[in-house]
Design brief:
By secondary structure, this protein is mostly helical. The chain is about 55% helix and about 5% strand. It has helices at about 10-30, 50-55, 65-75, 80-85, 90-105, 115-140, 145-155, and strands at about 5, 110. The chain has a two-stranded antiparallel ribbon. The protein is elongated.
Length: about 180
């Protein structure tokens, strides 16, 4: 199995450089962000809303915690990175390796070969692992949201938190 092949044209090789630049931007953003202490929600510092799964079900989606995990990893907090999302560090390291391989290929006027059966099988296996892990985590992790996320969910849905109100009952007649 060949890993690299000559680029057909400069435009094809440019895609390798773009992948490396995307990795550079993601890494710079991860370094800029402060990982959220809750293990998820770091993406909200970029103006994105909380995860709909957390708001609606109070449970994590398969990707909940990835931004926090990557940011923790970039900041050198390895244990916290795995706590935020166990698949985060391996995914970031795979992303990093592929980015550097693409930069190398671009410098040599080549492209990374991704259209072969082995790469397809690895991609499908990775996707099954990610979604399977996410489904199990969603099923086994209730009450995932922070108090702020629960409050926002209540505001969005129009639900009011249950409050106790003392009611005075009418006195029975004759007393």
């Amino acid at each position: 199995m060949e890993l690299l092949r000559p680029a057909v044209n400069p435009k094809e090789a440019r895609g390798q450089l773009i992948w490396f630049l995307v990795w550079t931007a993601v890494t710079a953003i991860g370094a800029y962000l402060t990982p959220d202490a809750h293990g998820h929600g770091t993406h909200q510092q970029l103006g994105f809303p909380p995860c709909p799964s957390v708001l609606i079900f109070d449970r994590p989606c398969p990707g909940c915690g990835l931004t926090t995990s990557w940011s923790d990893l970039i900041h050198g907090h390895f244990g916290l990175a795995f706590e935020a999302h166990p698949l985060g560090p391996p995914l970031y390291l795979l992303f990093t390796a592929s980015a550097w391989l693409c930069l190398y290929a671009w410098r040599k006027g080549q492209v990374v070969v991704t259209d072969n059966p082995i790469m397809s099988r690895l991609g499908i296996a990775g996707l099954i692992l990610f979604i399977g892990f996410g489904g199990i985590r969603m099923a086994l992790t209730p009450h995932f949201g922070t108090n702020g996320e629960r409050l926002l969910a209540n505001i969005i849905t129009g639900h009011r938190p249950a409050t106790r109100v003392a009611k005075t009952l009418p006195s029975p007649k004759g007393r």
